[in-house]
Design goal:
single chain; 2,3-Dihydroxybiphenyl 1,2-Dioxygenase, domain 1; four-stranded mixed beta sheet; 2 helices; 35% strand; globular
Amino acid sequence: MQSSFYHLQVNVNIENKAWYGQLMEALGWNEIYDDESMLGFSDQAGVSLWFSDADVQEKQNYDAFGTNHISIKVSKQSDVDEIAKVVTEMASDMLFDTPKHRPEFTRDQSETYYQIMFESPDKILFEIVYIGKKD
């Protein structure tokens, strides 16, 4: 059997749709769907991420059982800093002392794991990460 990751649906307060759209646009994802209750984006490999209006307006607790965070990998270390600036302009704070390098997540000292972490208005935790040669 062969399989691959296809899509992820995240239930949100659809009133925050513009925030998700701005983030995904900054990350270079293509908008593939938009109506009053759902917004969808696709990356270059065809993986899609959907933001759907939640029936229950209860915010996510990423420390509870279930999904902890959504991680999106970028191709350059400077991309992490660029997205950090965009997210800060969107009135979201960086969390966990990020941006920062995480040497404990690399194979050797020639590589870096450089990340930011932040919450959406619905308390969905996002990580943007560069993994590769140190810049």
